[in-house]
UniProtKB/TrEMBL annotation:
GO terms for molecular function: catalytic activity. Signal peptide: none annotated. Homodimer. PANTHER family: GLUTATHIONE S TRANSFERASE D10, ISOFORM A-RELATED. Gene3D superfamilies: 1.20.1050.10, Glutaredoxin (3.40.30.10). InterPro entries: Glutathione-S-Trfase_C-like (IPR010987), Glutathione-S-Trfase_C_sf (IPR036282), Glutathione_S-Trfase (IPR040079), Glutathione_S-Trfase_N (IPR004045), GST_C (IPR004046), Thioredoxin-like_sf (IPR036249). Residues 88-209 form the GST C-terminal domain. This is Uncharacterized protein. CDD domains: GST_C_Delta_Epsilon (cd03177), GST_N_Delta_Epsilon (cd03045). Belongs to the GST superfamily. PROSITE patterns: GST_CTER, GST_NTER.
Length: 217
């Protein structure tokens, strides 16, 4: 059985799925998509993902976009236990909330702040930075009483946020005002299975792209 995974190495959502796959212990057949060449707009790709986004997972008759949906599917379908994505409703609700926070608040605010700068040459916007900093304050509060963002064990929420925070770090956002985040970040880089292969080396792709684009400004 082959599970195809269409991805771009520098993408935080793609790296979040790679981290989840490592943690679950499932092997993905990696198919790299070059966005700069428009490979995500080719008819054959649009057939499996009309949104023409990355990542996309194809598992037999299932074609699934949206990274956090892919992560929860992998854990539910292939996880040896429910530690990464608890079945107990209240525990799962906390993991889901943190995943939605990552998607709709932390990563969204980072993208709104940083991507116009590197892709469109826009100036840095202090108001957008303030919103991102507010998101980090919330994340810091999640870690006030627990080692991980959704409790005392590593979950999918940690892996999604790990991919996002490692990406945000490339933009030279200062994390020192958030001691809980800083401690968590260093810890989860060590405890996330396959971190270096799934995220560590791939975040370098994003870093090189940022350096290249900023030099062109």
């Amino acid at each position: 059985m082959t599970i195809d995974f269409y991805y771009t190495p520098g993408s935080a959502p793609c790296r979040a799925v790679l981290l989840a796959a490592k943690a679950v212990g499932v092997e993905l057949n990696l198919k790299q998509i070059d966005l700069m060449k428009g490979e995500h707009l080719k008819p054959e790709y649009l057939k499996i993902n009309p949104q023409h986004t990355v990542p996309t997972l194809v598992d037999n008759d299932l074609s699934l976009a949206e990274s956090r949906a892919i992560m929860t599917y992998l854990a539910s379908q292939y996880g040896k236990n429910d530690s990464l994505y608890p079945k107990e409703p209240k525990k799962r609700a906390i993991v889901d909330q943190r995943l939605y926070f990552d998607a709709s608040t932390l990563y969204s605010r980072f993208a709104d702040y940083f991507y116009p700068v590197i892709f469109a040459g826009a100036p840095y916007d202090a108001a957008k930075l303030n919103k991102l900093e507010d998101a980090f304050k919330v994340l810091d509060s999640f870690l006030d009483k627990s080692e991980y963002v959704a409790g005392d064990k590593l979950t999918l929420a940690d892996l999604a946020l790990l991919a996002s925070v490692s990406t945000i770090e490339v933009a030279k956002i200062d994390l020192t005002p958030y001691p809980n985040v800083t401690k968590w970040f260093e810890n989860v880089k060590k405890t996330a299975p396959g971190y270096d292969e799934a995220n560590g080396k791939n975040v370098e792709h994003f870093k090189h792209m940022v350096e290249f684009l900023l030099k062109k400004k």
